Amino acid sequence: MAEDKLKQEDLVQIELTPPARDWMDPTVEFRKGTWNYTAVPETLDYLSLPNQGKWQPTDEEWPLPDNWQEIIHEGIKERLDKYRSFKIFMDICVRCGACADKCHFFIGSGDPKNMPVLRAELLRSIYRNDFTMAGKVLGKIAGGRKLTRAVIKEWFYYFFQCTECRRCSVFCPYGIDTAEITMIGRELLSLLGLGIEWVCTPLANCFRTGNHLGVQPHGFKDSIEFAVDELEEITGIRVNAPINKKGAEILFVAPSADYFASPHYYTLLGYLILFHEIGLDYTWSSYASEGGNFGLFHSHEMIKRLNSKIYMEAKRLGVKWILGGECGHMWRVLNQYMDTMNGPADFLEVPVSPLTGTKFENAASTKMTHISEFTADLIKHGKLNLDPKRNDHWVPTYHDSCNPARAMGLLEEPRYIIKHVSNNFHEMPENTIREQTFCCGSGAGLGTDENMEMRLRGGLPRANAVSYVKEKFDVNVLLCMCAIDKATLPPLLEYWVPDVEVAGVHELVGNALMMKGEKPRTTDLRGEPMKGFEEGTEEEAKDV
Predict the structure, then answer these.
(1) C-alpha to C-alpha distance for 480 and 438, rounded to whole angstroms
(2) Is the dihedral of CA 192, 196, 202, 204 positive or negative?
(3) Is the CB of residue 266 less than 8 Å from the CB of residue 273?
(4) What one-character DSSP code corresponds to residue 502?
(5) Tens digits of per-residue pLDDT, 379-425?
(6) Distance CA 541, CA 544 (A)
(7) How far apart are the first and last CA of the chain?
(8) What does the alpha-carbon distance between residue 274 and residue 525 come to, in Å, rounded to a whole number?
(9) In the chain, what are the domain boundaries?
(10) How much is the pTM?
(11) Nearest Cα to 513, choosing from 415, 384, 416, 356?
(12) How many angstroms separate the CA atoms of 284 and 287, rounded?
């Protein structure tokens, strides 16, 4: 559904009265604007995944294997045996409803099956019916449902209306991670050859070229060199951006969008300025040219297969430790799965800042540190010459990207940086930030044009919070640390909260950082005039 045909007055008419029909009825309507295109057969073949040919969710008959029920039952059994958490999550939910109104998709749509508790029941009801004694004896009375073709359609519709943001898990008194249930649901669908294009094609690209966008090594090199050239025009200084440098101390890995998309690109410029100014001994890799991991949106096995390239390249290049850029899903994988899936990384050292001597003990296992931890530490030890006035044309607020916030606990570090590189920072309401942050509404592979209505509905709670600080404080930029956020928040804000830009934290670091020998700067990294520096004031020249 085209964005310009979606009227705000229609989207905000949210009906919260539950429908009259029983929730166990699996019938769904694949309405335009609420679902994603399916994966193309060539992509599935490339990934060696089950392939049912060309089809779309709106088809009346879906091309399922003859033994599809057996495949699902065996898939559930295998995962119950393999993942203790899955069995616990299937058994312990008491339907208390603490999570019911916490999902941005439920808030934005009013669909009760987007309540996390009920979305999980779509899978749990099959588990109860076919894998518990109570279900086998009592069936529906015990909360069980039979596995039918309609249930498979229902799974596809709702498990691809969950961004795995885990906000619901914060409020669950039992600690049920609904994102894990969504991941299992998507794995089971994949066993039948049912996947979406904007997950599977980035996966295939990553296998072929090392990044989700399919940028080949020479294209990656050209992109980095273009950024170096542009920084020379802006600052008068030619920074060094080594690629595939063996023996460097640090391997730096960032999401591919940082060197190929906007506004991500300005974050890349911020990285390059920072690394040059502190004289960091680091290298990029044209093989591990992607930190993000769309495997998180597909299956545990795919997470492992994609993530292995980072450790493999660290070993090939002979680095001591790994530094990672601003990304979301990248960091949930690195912080929660990397060590057990691809480790132990015994050939690497515990990260130690070469400038401050700080040992990042929290990375003792994975040997990988987040850029916000690294930069905050530099600022704390007075290693950066920052002029926050260079960002006075920005009035920022900060969106806690779901995975760095909830999967890593990176809550204070980005704020510490922002407060040292800008003067006008304002927080959104407290129940919309930090651990309770609202999702962008487009993560986990759902950021597609054909899914625009659900994206705008799912992003409404975040947009409401941005609207509040815009009206109260004249906020004009939303900062974040996630590649998907930087891609999907701009159209969301353009629709709900016009005239608020989106930027990475290290874009503002690049603006504020005063480089030795730089020429007087009158514009920021976007080429926009810096307030008070339009003509290159004497104060600016003196400070440099």
Answers:
(1) 12
(2) positive
(3) no
(4) E
(5) 999 999 999 999 999 999 999 999 999 988 999 999 999 999 999 99
(6) 5
(7) 51
(8) 13
(9) 3-195, 202-380, 388-543
(10) 0.94
(11) 384
(12) 9
